[in-house]
Automatic annotation (TrEMBL):
Coiled-coil intervals: none
Pfam family, one: Amidohydro_3
Sequence ranges assigned to domain Amidohydrolase in this UniProt record: 47-529
InterPro entries membership: Amidohydro_3 (IPR013108), Metal-dep_hydrolase_composite (IPR011059), Metal_Hydrolase (IPR032466)
Organism of origin: Dactylosporangium maewongense
Signal peptide (from-to): none
Protein name: Amidohydrolase 3 domain-containing protein
Top-rank lineage group of the source organism: Bacteria
């Protein structure tokens, strides 16, 4: 049966994603043939001239948070605020504009770019919006702040938090600032009380994924009680949808074991569990002891430049210890024994562990634990690996785990890392180091913490603003965001654009590494799903 023939394009062909001028034939839900431009194409029922375009495998985003992104459309966007006073003024205006809303949700605040280096306190929120329930979330979705009314509604205490997850004043009272587990549980409870249809909001976020050429979206955290909801969202298969389950209490709460993980289907991938080994801004890092002096001096210079004590105060409150010649920031969420026991339990139950490990100390712990429990190659995923050292890279390579990094973090959090001087001692988003060590590497967005656009993430992986020696080649970047990403999920697409493979395609109007290029068509299983075909 003849199908649809696309001609005149550059095809990023095969599992190597090698670009070559040629044609591509789709029959049903499969690619039935590809060929170079000088090879006569076969007959077809439908001919599509895509001259000047590039056809890539559909993008597979192995780590995003569509279930959070949808809610952001109903809240206040704080990404453009440049200072604490500007944030408070905007929050006051938003509260007055919608005085009867049960919750005022503020998203994407970036206090690490403000001179004050902190989010508002509950008292400051109360002053600009008295009596209102307010939750302000940082862009990394690992920290936030709540008003006094919100603290009362949510029951914010230190009961379920690790040391420091609820900031306290000198009298031991919560200031409103919350981190990690305490923040994640507050967010879950606030969203459960906020108006809005979670299914419709998530569907809106998934539709945006499709418009950017994403044919498979992997939701990095779903509480067990929302598993059935995700099954309903996965039914249309546009995009393909899969997910990892986590703790029911909140995004960043510790897992209790596989007994609470739902049985059966997890969408378009295998069963998976999400563990947080460290935090976001509070990640687990080790560096040479000499880094302490350098980092402190950097904070002093920033304080002088900002004319505000915020940078120095922020540096001084970090949990740092010096052991011999090593400086450690101790933000591990599990002990080594606890982690090994959890990994063993999940692997035995047939669930793939996906471990958030942002700092090199957490990465070392993840890789060491996998080897300790005898995890087979490809049985687990280590996410983020933002700050690395050679020892951590070697351990990851020896563990056999997949590694997922987010190139978009180079623009979202890169300036913060450089300003703090950490890039002098550690590798930042070290894609080159991981690939050279033989680690199977995938790229992802972690949206909303990082930018969603796959083309933008490809370009950042190749043309890096920080540590350019860590850049990937164009073909390596495309592979990491398509075929390797699909393979890491055990999902369609691991063979790339080749005969017999599922026809998931992203068609661009030019070279994907040209900043002006955009995705113009998205195909899933041989059917164009974006833009939708005209009817009537």
């Amino acid at each position: 049966m003849a199908g649809t023939l696309m001609t005149g394009a550059t095809i990023w062909a095969g599992p190597t994603c090698t670009p070559q001028p040629g044609w591509l034939l789709v029959t049903g839900d499969r690619i039935t043939a590809t060929g170079a431009h000088d090879t006569p194409p076969p007959p077809a029922d439908t001919m599509i001239d895509v001259a000047g375009c590039h056809i890539l495998p559909g993008f597979v985003d192995t780590h995003l948070h569509a279930t959070v992104v949808g809610w952001q459309t109903l809240g206040v966007d704080g990404s453009a605020w440049t200072s604490l006073p500007a944030a408070l003024a905007a929050i006051g205006v938003a509260a007055a504009a919608d005085p009867h809303a049960p919750w005022l949700l503020v998203w994407n605040a970036r206090p690490f770019r403000w001179p004050q280096r902190r989010l508002p306190t509950a008292a400051e929120l109360d002053a600009v919006a008295p009596g209102r329930q307010i939750l302000v979330s940082g862009v990394d979705v690992h920290r936030g702040t709540v008003s006094s009314q919100a603290m009362r509604a949510l029951g914010i205490t230190t009961r379920r938090a690790q040391d420091g997850d609820v900031s306290l004043d000198r009298r031991g009272r919560p200031t409103g600032e919350i981190w990690e587990q305490a923040y994640g549980e507050a967010l879950a409870r606030a969203l459960a009380s906020a108006p809005g249809d979670p299914v419709a909001l998530t569907r809106q976020a998934l539709d945006r994924c499709v418009s950017l050429g994403i044919t498979h979206a992997h939701e990095a955290y779903v509480p067990p009680q929302h598993h059935e909801r995700m099954l309903g969202l996965a039914a249309p298969a546009s995009p393909r949808l899969s997910w990892a389950v986590g703790a029911g209490e909140g995004l960043l709460s510790p897992l209790e074991g596989p007994s609470v993980a739902p049985d059966g289907d997890y969408g378009a991938s295998g069963r998976e569990a999400k563990l947080f080994l460290d935090g976001g801004d509070r990640c687990a890092v080790c560096m040479p002891a000499r880094a302490l002096g350098r980092l402190t001096w950097q904070a002093v210079k920033e304080t002088v430049a900002a004319r505000h004590p915020g940078p120095l105060r922020d540096a001084m409150r970090r949990r740092t210890t010096v052991q011999g010649r090593t400086l450690r920031l101790e933000y591990l969420r599990y002990s080594d024994r606890e982690l090994a026991d959890l990994l063993s339990a999940y692997l035995s139950a047939g669930l793939r562990p996906r471990m958030h490990a942002l700092g090199n100390l957490a990465v070392r712990q993840a890789a060491t634990a996998l080897r300790a429990v005898g995890a087979p190659a490809g049985a687990a995923v280590i996410d983020h690996l933002v700050l690395l050292d050679p020892a951590a890279v070697d351990l990851v390579a020896a563990s056999g785990a997949w590694a997922t990094v987010q190139p978009g973090f180079l623009t979202t959090f890169g300036p913060q890392i450089v300003d703090g001087g950490t890039d002098r001692f550690l590798t930042v988003v070290g894609g080159r180091s991981l690939l050279d060590a033989g680690v199977p590497l995938t790229l992802a967005s972690d949206h909303p913490a990082g930018p969603l656009d796959p083309l933008g993430n490809l370009r950042l992986a190749v043309r890096r603003p920080i540590q350019p020696a860590q850049a990937l080649t164009p073909a390596e970047a495309v592979r990491a965001l398509t075929v390797t990403a699909a393979a890491s999920l055990g999902a369609p697409g691991a063979g790339g654009l080749a005969a017999g493979e599922t026809a998931d395609l992203a068609i661009c109007d030019g070279d994907p590494f040209d900043p002006a290029t955009r995705v113009t068509q998205t195909w899933i299983s041989g059917r164009r799903v974006w833009p939708a075909a005209a009817t009537g």
